[in-house]
Amino acid sequence: MPRTPAREKLLDAAGRLILGSGWQRLRVSHVAVEAGVSRQSAYNEFGSKEALGEALVMREFERHLDGLTEQLLDRREDVGLAVEEAVLYTFRSASANPVLKAVLTSARTGLVMGELAEVVRNREVPPLPQAITAVTALVARHRPDLDPFSVRLAIDMVLRVTVSYLVTPEGSHEDAAARIALMATRVLGLPVR
């Protein structure tokens, strides 16, 4: 669905309310009031609370995926550095955007958006497999010299381990990103820098 100013206002309002009160307490009517639109306009835009929640999660996930893609493309010649910067980007984004952090970690930590994450997991294509597929295709286009199976395996591992570090941090973000990059380069059979 196209991003209209009204839709963005509603999604922003939903994010604020979910962070404040949790998904279970969220009502589309509350979102409408917070966004300054009529309840009917909110329902016309999304149809249901679940559709609103899915749209919010997917917007945050797609924004993050766009930024992640930029990090990878800017450094595509040095895979280790590209992975390290992409992981650091994820850590910084999650720190700066509580909705994104909740989306990335809620299934494991029971944060206020845990029930919302369940709504998204029930989608035909959940966000994590969607991200793995998108990043795999990106790498295949820009680094055809790498083995496709190893690329998919490395991307799956990088994304899952990054989420694990978000849930249970250990050491600095820089150290974690360097370790994840090292794992990825080894899976890909590339020289370690």
Automatic annotation (TrEMBL):
Q: Which residues form a coiled coil?
A: none
User: Which SUPFAM superfamilies does the entry mention?
Assistant: Homeodomain-like (SSF46689)
Pfam families for this protein: TetR_C_35, TetR_N
Query: What Gene3D superfamilies does the entry give?
Result: Tetracycline Repressor, domain 2
Q: Which domain of life is it from?
A: Bacteria
Per UniProt, residues of the HTH tetR-type domain are: 4-64
**InterPro entries hit by this protein:** AlkX_C, Homeodomain-like_sf, HTH-type_TetR-like_transc_reg, HTH_TetR
User: Which keywords, in A-to-Z order, does the entry hold?
Assistant: DNA-binding, Transcription, Transcription regulation
* Residue spans binding DNA: 27-46
The UniProt record lists the keyword Transcription: yes
Any GO molecular function: DNA-binding transcription factor activity
Question: What's this protein's name?
Answer: TetR family transcriptional regulator
Q: What organism is the protein native to?
A: Actinocorallia herbida
